[in-house]
Specification:
By secondary structure, the chain is of the alpha+beta class. Helix content is 59%, strand content 15%. A three-stranded antiparallel sheet has the order 1-3-2.
Length: 189
């Protein structure tokens, strides 16, 4: 009787091991590849600051408006980092320690005004609208702002700024701005 019980136990163990081996051989799928609308036109390059915004709404116009605002917010965020670094570098190296904070503040103030104007005039490079099965609208919008135009406009505004008691050096500022943009582009690689 003990031999029969032992034999049944061995068969049961072998059967349970076999089922575990079967589970271990099962392939796991990676999922479904998702294609993102406007993906090709939403990344910065050497010439442009770019972003893609998306939004979903019951109304098509609200979805479009929200997607555009989201794209603008992303560009604004990128430009915030750019101008912070640019104004810090320029004010420290050109204005000197005594004037650095004043010059930095002026540059950042002028840039904030300029960014809003540039965002209002931003070039739309892609728009895709999708009506979802539940009736909602999904909007994808990509925008871009020329880096060169941005630097030229800021340089022009700073040249005309009466608060700057130091002589504003256009060429020096352009050099700092282009160097900062190049470093940002290289950091992404």
């Amino acid at each position: 009787m003990k031999k029969i019980l032992l034999a049944m136990l061995v068969v049961a163990l072998c059967a349970s091991c076999a089922s575990k081996k079967e589970v271990a051989r099962t392939k796991v799928t990676r999922g479904v590849k998702i294609e993102i609308p406007c993906a090709d036109s939403g990344f910065d390059n050497k010439e442009y600051f770019r972003a893609t915004g998306t939004a979903t709404a019951v109304n098509l116009q609200n979805a479009r408006r929200a997607a555009l605002q989201n794209a603008k917010a992303m560009v604004r965020e990128k430009l915030g980092g750019f101008v912070q670094g640019l104004s810090t570098d320029y004010s420290r190296n050109v204005a000197g320690e005594a004037e650095a904070s004043k010059v930095q503040s002026i540059i950042e103030g002028e840039f904030a005004t300029l960014v809003e104007r540039e965002l209002n005039d931003a070039e739309q490079t892609c728009e895709e609208l999708i009506q979802l099965p539940d009736g909602l609208y999904e909007s994808w919008i990509s925008i871009q702002i020329s880096k060169q135009s941005l630097v030229e406009d800021l340089t022009s505004r700073l040249t005309d700024n009466e608060e700057l008691e130091i002589e504003f050096n256009r060429d020096e500022f352009r050099k700092y701005a282009e160097d900062k943009m190049n470093r940002m582009q290289e950091a992404k690689k």
